[in-house]
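User: My advisor asked me to double-check a structure prediction for oligopeptidase A before group meeting. I don't want to rely on an old file, so could you generate it fresh from this sequence?
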Amino acid sequence: MIKYLRKGRIVPAMLAMLAFASCDQQKEAPVSENVLLEEWTGPYGGVPAFDKMQVTDIKDAMLKGMELNLKDIDAIANQSEAPTFANTIEEMERAGKELDRVYTYYGILSANMSTPEFRKIQSELAPKLSEFRSKITQNEKLFKRIKAVYEASKQKPLVADQQRVLDLTYKSFEMNGAELAPEKKARYAAINKELSSHYTKFSNNVLHDEEGYVTYLDKSQLGGLSEGFVKAAAKIATEKGQEGKYAITNSRSSMDPFLTFSTERELRKQVWTNYYSRGDNGDEYDNNKLIAEILKLRRERVQLLGYKNYAEWRLQDRMAKNPENAMKLMEAVWPAAIVRVDEEVRDMQAVADAAGDKITIEPWDYRFYAEKVRKAKYDLNSDEVKQYLQLDKLTDAMHYVAGRLFNYKFTPVAEGKVAVYHPDVKVWEVTDQATGKNVGLWYLDPYARQGKRSGAWANTFRSHTTLDGKKNVLATNNSNFVKPAPGEATLVSWDDATTFFHEFGHALHFFSSNVKYPTLNGGVRDYTEFQSQLLERWLSTDEVINKYLVHYKTGEPIPAELVKKIKNASTFNQGFGTTEYLASALIDMKIHLADPTNLDVDKFERETLAELKMPKELPMRHRTPHFGHVFSGEGYATAYYGYIWADVLTADASEAFAEAEGGFYDKELADKLVKYLFAPRNSMDPAEAYRLFRGRDAKIEALMRDRGFPVAVQ
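Assistant: Sure, here is a fresh prediction for oligopeptidase A from the sequence you gave:
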């Protein structure tokens, strides 16, 4: 998943998925001396002063940053000169540099190092940030200037990148109520303020349940678990004051392998229930009523603008354009997905029956028996595969792919040369292999810990622009792998390795940017996952497998026979993967199309899944009460379908590489990949960019083939 923290002046869901953290207690520094506002110094064009970051500084820094940003905006809005692109739009692109810098620290403290102290500050800041954004999007003088430049461009178009920035800026202001009557503007701003607090509360409720539910095992309950997993669980338990026990935390990185390999069925049920009940425990941290209120406010807000529902408003500037097109794609894939689940469940039940287990497959059994089916059908043991998937080697593999496709070289930065916010974080310098010039820095934060939100994501501390001189890129990838015991290798599953490559794809998208204007580093939500999903495909290329998949103890390369099994099983369990995802995407869309009046969220989820004929043996990937993509902000609201929309592009583009003379490392096609799909970022229409790469639009048939589904299902 990608996260953008661009200025807030035209990004309505900025700060959407952030929670808070804390450092050492100190007296608050005077605003004038607040290090979080200061220009970055040091090597590589200046870097964040993470070693000086204090939670006690963040509130004052945010408030001062907003104040300075508004001064910049007022200067633009109140100037006497006639509005032009240079004195209005370009100056808006320059505005708020201090606040931009503070957001870097804000994002790290919230997503990577959260504590109750920081969450309290976040709750205080959320409504103030909403008011700040409204003061910009509802600034009548500012919008009058933007509109004048926009209307002039209809008579005399600007150069392509300037026109794109102008169009995006105008559309964003229009979509956020710039042309409303005064009383409606006031209500619009009030709704945004209320929503901002709800989003913060939603995030913190989920984080509470992720931190608060831990399952402790004793030695008699470790059946089926790997040695490495057991050692890591023991280390976590010790850190939590439970010496001699083994901790299964309420995170996917801990839950998933436990459900796959543990022979303790009742404990599997307990771990499964903890994970899928986040935000839905009927206590003060329950999110159901909060979601209902969010949905009501979202509907009311867009109706002020004349839209029927939130989805209609949200999708107008996406590739799908409207909810009908998004639903059409999901409904084309859904029947094949649930049919495949039925086949998978029959296979699993047969294995259970043959073993004399006398059970009926339940959701907490799916991963466990799917693993047994994989072994029976393909003689493939995912734990055996894991012995060849070392995090360090996978990191090297990603750097190799970046070198082959993008001509980048990754060199470790000496410890202490660049400040980091946690000892787990490592830094690499990225250079162009042809010229030796610096492209930027890559920060990697791979391990789960207290206060770090779950999942995997990518972000930038600084994005490429050439508006006022070329700026290099500071990009970060974040994962939640279980940290191994000292001296042990970090071994990950094939799925986790795929996600690792996925997030690195976002980083390469950041590094390859060739845009002039900061706004063009943003993206269209149902397109921005495409580049990262596409990069996943290089994990299974022969070059990566043969060079980087080596046994963590012996150093021996992965056996050819095991590789063959992996490739033969490439479409295995696609029913599960596709259905759990699509269920979440369909609920996201349908709940925003539904009338939110007196909505019972839990009942809606349950009844909608029944109407869809959702298989009872598996859950949604993200149940509604903890669906942070959608309810901790607005980045993915009615847009979670975007992953499968992007995956149509991914499957189609993958076929182009498979058919190329040089395969996935074909030089000519790789150059087109960078030129049209990565470097432009949001400087051109995504559909046009894809046509320039492929010579035509993407076809859904490629997706169906890729997942092993019948192509005829439409």
